[in-house]
Design goal:
2 helices
Length: about 80
């Protein structure tokens, strides 16, 4: 895999609440929230140390509503 993940411009444009300058696209593990599991269109993730505007708490974990993170999961299975 490249150092950087390739994501569509459309997904980036939809991610209007991203204040981390798309850190997840660096491909570095700390930049990408850790996937817990994906069920249908819901991507459950472990809470990241850094606050993300797309993280929605749910029980002891949460789920991600970020269009960029969803595309990372769909394209790279991470």
């Amino acid at each position: 895999m490249d150092d950087k993940l390739k994501i569509s411009e459309d997904a980036k444009k939809k991610a209007t609440k991203c204040h981390r300058n798309f850190a997840c696209l660096s491909g570095n593990k700390p930049g990408v929230c850790k996937e817990f599991c994906a069920i249908d269109d819901i991507l459950f993730v472990k809470k990241n140390k850094e606050i993300c505007n797309y993280f929605v708490p749910f029980g002891y974990r949460g789920y991600c509503t970020c269009p960029v993170r969803e595309e990372i999961h769909n394209n790279y299975n991470i």
